Fold this protein.
Amino acid sequence: QVYLVESGGGLAQAGGSLRLSCAPSASIVSFNAMGWFRQAPGKQRELVARIWSGGSTYLADSVKGRFTISRDNPKNTVYLQMNSLQPEDTAVYYCHAQETGGAFSADYWGQGTQVTVSS
């Protein structure tokens, strides 16, 4: 069983910044991709950012230019740096990891961390 431990959520004012961290119980190099999803009240969970094992990244259009996803292999941690936060960014943010190998595929989720942005 793989666990993803998230931290860094909280309350921020519009225009402010927060950094989320995700530390898996397994080595991050064992995952082919890690990322962050978010779910606002009454809405579906959506992909915010993803980073692949080769280093390439994806950012949703709604956060491009404001959010950055990165990975620190020695610290075994993935980060989501969120700048210029807006009230629309308010959601529960979930860390996600995908592990694949041959016919094997598994998805792991963190417990979620609340981000609230006040106007």
Q: What stands out?
A: The chain is about 0% helix and 55% strand. The two ends are 40 Å apart (CA to CA).
